[in-house]
Amino acid sequence: MTMASAEASHRPQKVAVLGAGAAGLVTGRLFHEAGFRVRIFEKTSTVGGVWKYRPEDVMYRSLVTNLPKEIMAFLDTPFDPSLPSFLRHTDVQTYLEGYAKQYDVEKLITFDTEVKEVRPVRRTRGQEGKGAAPYPPGDYTREHGVGAAREKEGPEGAEGEESQAPVWQVTVVRQAGGSVAGACEGVPESEVFDAVVVCNGHYQVPHCPDLPGLREHYRGRVMHSRDYDHPEALRGLKVLCVGYRASGTDIAREVAQVASEVHVVDRRLSKMMEDGKEEAGALQRGNIYRRPGLRVFLPGGDGKSAMFEDGSVCTGIDLVLYCTGFQYHVPFLSGGSAFESRPLSPSAPLSDARLLRVEDRAVFPLYQHLFHAFFPSLVFIGLLHSVVPFPLFELQARWALKTLRQPPGSDPPPPSLPPRRRRFQWLEEEKMRQEAAGRVLGRDWFFLGPGQWAYKRLLAREAGCLTSALEEDLQVREGIYNDVSNRRPVFPGGSDAYRRCEYRRVAGGEGWEVEVGGKGSFEGAGEEKGEGARKAQC
């Protein structure tokens, strides 16, 4: 047997990819090109995920990207160069549809098919999915498991626990028009895979934190940004936007064109005012008002009044608009919903294998925010936020690909991953790092922001693909990202003139330029000139 055939014989033959958005498409492509038998399950009838516009879904009608196409693209597939730097959502959807066609990913996708359950089952020879023996029940969100799982562990020092790695039974239901071979509509069908890569996104279940007094005292309308499609329905209203990040900033600006007033709750403001970094005169721009954290909705009166942390009061609020993000929701995995998350004692009896803990907006136990720490053949792509997503998805998929090339249940574990003990230790160390940085572990657990570039280099190193060409590419992307970040408005609802900038990579991949607001000339290239570009005004 040749080395190539030996390696092929050790690869997981079957991998299930859950979701045909950007993360699912790049994952399916890479695994298929590496010789895996890939099936992508998509519950809708199209690729694109969140980028496919439907009035009832999260994408709103007028959305324009807040990152330029020069850094958004996958690593080897640029956007159409004739497009502007900042794209309409339809341009991104067209790009993803073209990506699926270009790399022949469409043939791997089973459309109109909802994944109902993913469960670990015992690995047996010739297993194809029917009558699979379930994995021992236990809480596999802990290093040693809880319950029956403990009985099956191998000796920790010898890393024998890795030899107990399961395979995965995936149960799906075909919806109207679905394409599961031989399946009847609404009838569950199961199939067993060596590995599962979860790419279902995190923009489905709105996160609506409890606001003091809202339920008891507020008598106006309440909605989440997920239900926002266009501003006309808010004409003439006084709107309170709770949240100041991307959706809060952009929706506030758009709504202000038709609303009587828009008040944006920006919880950063209280601290800034305490430190003397913000003056009262900067709190209003047109009919948009910036407010510190919300203290309470007030009883009595018009039933539409709120007090803020600085003691100021806003009356006559017609609509509370949550711009507070989304819950992580993986309903097909045991423990994968915020609505079923509960603390468990070490002796708590379990009837199945509990795989996830969802705490606020954090999902445990994921090593490096990617691999399930107990069962690394269960992989999650794209949970991190405040990032340039498509290249991050690709690098995560490449590390997963390198890891899953190893023999299933290998002992010792794949060389690209440490043993289980170290994987769980990393989680504890990461908690301490985030606490030391003053982060709120739930809300900020998956936040990267500027830290994404170190993480992308880590992914590339672990995947074995951090070449000099990729390093140059990441440097250019990071420089453009920093430039865009410095041009975005600090004031929620402020001007989006930065979206009129046009970016361009310098030939040879060694730098970048930016054309500022139609001035007709490019400025900035690489780090030194890029600094000058950052100081210019769009």
From TrEMBL:
Coiled coil: none annotated. One of its GO terms (molecular function) is flavin adenine dinucleotide binding. Residues 122-164, 517-538 are annotated as: Disordered. Residues 140-155, 526-538 have a biased composition (Basic and acidic residues). InterPro entries: FAD/NAD-bd_sf, Flavin_mOase, Flavin_mOase-like, FMO-like. Keywords: FAD, Flavoprotein, NADP, Oxidoreductase. It comes from the Eukaryota. Pfam families: FMO-like (PF00743). PANTHER family: DIMETHYLANILINE MONOOXYGENASE. Belongs to the FMO family. This is Flavin-containing monooxygenase.
